[in-house]
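job 3f2a | input accepted
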Amino acid sequence: MNILKQSIDRLWVGRVARYGALVLASLLLAGCPEEDVAKLQATDVMQGRLPGSVGSARAQTYIINEVSKYASGVFAGQGEQAFKQAYGSGTNLYAVRQGTDLPNEYIVLGAHYDHLGSNCYSADSADSICNGATDNATGVAAVLDVLRRMDDDGFTGRRSIIAAFWDEEERGYLGSAYALNNLPIAQSQIKAYVNLDILGLNLLPSLRSNTFVIAAESGGNVLEQAVNTARNESGLDLPRLSAAASSLSDHRNFLQAGIPAVFFTDAIGGCYHTAQDDIFVVDFDKLEAQIDVISSLVRSLLNQSSTPQFSGAGELNYQDAQQLDTVFRRASSNRSLIASGWRDEFDLAIGAVSDVVNEGDAAFNSTSQSRLAVATNDFLGALRSSECDGHLPPETP
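job 3f2a | predicted structure (397 res):
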C-alpha cells in the first residue's frame, strides 16, 4: 500500500474529521512537513524505524529522496551511497548546501530518525508499533523543511550547511557519537550545531505554545543573540534553559566535543515512547511556527559576520528557575490531566521551583540547583503519567 495513501486513510477519521479538507489537501501536496511525518511514521511500512531493520532502510530512502532535492551528498559514490555513513549497527545520513565566500565553515542542523520498532508501551493491545511521530519524525521533517524553504526562495548562505540525520539516538546517542570522530569534515570547521528532537507536541493545553530552547549559552554572546533574535520573531513561548536542563539528545555529544550547540524540544509527555505517538497528536500549526524560528536562526548563523565560540555548557542557574517557574505555573491549570498517583509530585515540583525563585538570585547555590533538578524530573514524570493526547486546538468554524 502506498505510504501516503495509507496515512491519509488513517487521518480521515481523525485529523481530517477534526480540521476538514484543508489538512487532506496539504497531505496531497508533495514536499511538506505533514507528508514527511505521515510517511516516516507509517506503521505498516516503517515498522518503528528500528536501527538495522527493513523499516529503517525505508526511512533512509525516503529521507535521501527528499533531501537530495535541496542538497548534495557528501561522500563519493552514486545515488544513496553519497548520503550514507554506515557504521556498526547504524547508518547516519548527511547532505550539504555549499556556502559562498565561507564554504569551509559549517553549520550542522540535525535530528535523529531512528525509533524503537515495537519496543515501547502501548495503551492499545492492537497497536504495537512505536510510530515515533513526534520522536522524531517531526524533527526530521523540520530539517527537511528548512532546506526546502532555502531552495524555494533561492537562499544561499555564506557558510555551508550540513543536514544530518542520526541513527541510534534511542540507544544512547550512538550515531552522533560515531559521527564526531568520523565526520566528512574536521570538527574545527563546525561553527555551531542545531539539534531538533520532539517537536509539534503539546504537553498540556496550557503549554500549547511552549517549546524549550536549551544550551544557547554554549556559543557565547553570538549564539545567544542569534537565538534571542529568532525567538523574538515568533508567537511561540520559547523559554531558554541552560545545557544542564537536558542532555538527553544528540546535542550532548557536540557539547562534550567543545562545539557550540542549541537544542529545540517540546520535552516529554504522555506520548513519549508509546505506540500512540502517531500523526494524530502532532500539532502541525505549532510545527510550522517552530520551523519558522529554526529557519531564521540557521540563516542567521550561516550569514552573520561572527561565529559562536564555545564557552562551556552552563549549569542550572536562577534564570532557569524563573523560566521553569513560569512554565510550571501555567501547567498547574491542567492538574486534572495528570494521573492521580502523580499529582502530589506535580504539586511538589511546582512548589519547589516557586520556592527557589522566591528565595532570590543571591540565595541561589548548589543546593538550589539540586532542588531544581529534582523538581524538573518530578514534573516530567508527572507529565509522562498523563494519557497520550496532542491537546490539539479546537476546530476553527
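job 3f2a | The CA atoms of residues 216 and 374 lie 22 Å apart.
job 3f2a | closed
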